[in-house]
Amino acid sequence: FFISSDGSAVVEHTSQVVYLNDGELACIGPDGLHVTTTDAIPVHKEVTELEMTLEQIQLDGYEHHMLKEINEQPASLRDAMRGRMHQGQVWLGGLQVIDREWARCQRLMLTGCGTAWHAGLIGEYLFEELARIPTEVQYASELRYRNPIVEEGTLAVAISQSGETADTLAALHEVHTKGATVLGLVNAVGSTIARETDAGIYLHVGPEIGVASTKAFTAQVAVLTLMAIDLGRRRHLSAEYTAEILAELEQLPDKVAAALDLDAQCAALAKRLTERDNWLYMGRGINFPVALEGALKLKEISYIHAEGLHAAEMKHGPIALVDLDMPVIFVAALDSTYEKVLANIEEVNARGGRIIAIASKGDTRLEGLAEEVIYVPASHPLLSPILTTVPLQLIAYHAALERGHDVDKPRNLAKSVTVE
Ligand code: M6R
Q1: What are phi and psi of 411, to 5 degrees?
Q2: Please, which residues bridge with residue 136 across strands?
Q3: Which protein residues touch ligand 1 with a CB less than 6 Å away?
Q4: What pLDDT, in 10s, does the model give residues 200-230?
Q5: Which of 205-244 are b and which e, b meaning 16 or more Cβ less than 10 Å from the residue's Cβ?
Q6: CA 410 / ligand 1 centre spacing (Å)
């Protein structure tokens, strides 16, 4: 027998695992495994087959897991969407058990921490735009202590790669107790959040080993898009518009593969800017959470101070930070906020900031305004966050490498935050 806190630690030796719940004790002796409650009541445990292989957790020629996982995104997005789109419809089997509550939900509450929370913020735009459902997003750490209002028709979604984040788990218990149906959007199969929610949708992106979450994030956004389309279709979304977005989703893995070709440009950029100790990331609309995510990625692995800001909020204070040395990364996809972002870029330009723009291919208006433009493939505006995120992941990776840090195991951080 092996005892571990994660399947990836034992997959080299076995694929058969037993998951312990809170309040259970495992006793291993020459006569085998015995599980009881802490009150010594025997518990029968099922043996579960691990849904991961040794190959999935090996570096496979890459220098770091993070780089491998960034590069896996075309495949991981395909895996996350596989079997879930068919003939102009979305099919999410995990929702079957709560189909009634799902179809009738009046209000969505999305929760998670860190990168998962950023995915939730993008989800908010998606659900409101595609399904016209009032949606709120809360840090799980806030939600658990906030006395959240749960009414008839409130459906909560706990987003977590690991399925073990303590704050997210506590938040889901809190809203559960208050009567909400809780859905899990989780990657780790068999994890606590997956087991303790009323229903769940797995991401199916395989193990994510690097502490910095990358492929889980893009898959979370892709699955949230599918959920929003599904809910929208049950309400006002037309068959034509649904077909249009689904067709774009089908193309997304190839577009992400094209965005990965930006690696050399991102590496050169990171090298040039790595001496700068403070960076700003700005975005608006559905790409505002991408700015937050870009800044989080940079700070957690390169230890460079970075702030993600809503570009319109800049004039309410943060613009005072802009000087000739400040790298300012704008996410300027061709979405509904594009013209406004352009105006914000001009404001920073006038103050001498070093502007880097993440833009859509074919957009020619940023040349001359930005020190450098990184072009990602153009897409449906609602899907642009998945594409604009990729160069920001690469920039963070290369900046950390330039600074000589352990990219996969940044200081003071753990992959699963199982404490409050
Ligand atoms: O496993 P989870 O998705 O619940 O983890 C939540 C956060 O701890 C996680 O996303 C964290 O912010 C990442 N290290 C960010 O890259």
Answers
A1: -60, 150
A2: 109
A3: 112-116, 160-162, 165, 168, 211-213, 296, 300, 416-417
A4: 999 999 999 999 999 999 999 999 999 999 9
A5: bbbbbbbbbbbbbbbbbbbbbbbbbbbbbeeebeeeebee
A6: 13
Among the ranges 56-65, 281-290, 349-358, which has the highest mean pLDDT value? Answer: 281-290
pLDDT in tens, 228-268: 999 999 999 999 999 999 999 999 999 999 999 999 999 99
Ligand 1: distance of its center to the CA of 59 in Å? 21
- Residue for token pair 């409050």: 420
Q: How far, in Å, is the centroid of ligand 1 from the Cα of 214?
A: 10
Residue of 322, 325, 333 whose CA lies nearest to 374: 333
Residue nearest to atom 12 of ligand 1 (CA): 114
> What digits encode the pLDDT tens for the residues 61-70?
999 999 999 9
Q: Which atom of ligand 1 is nearest to the CA of 112?
A: 4
106 alpha carbon – ligand 1 mean position (Å) = 28
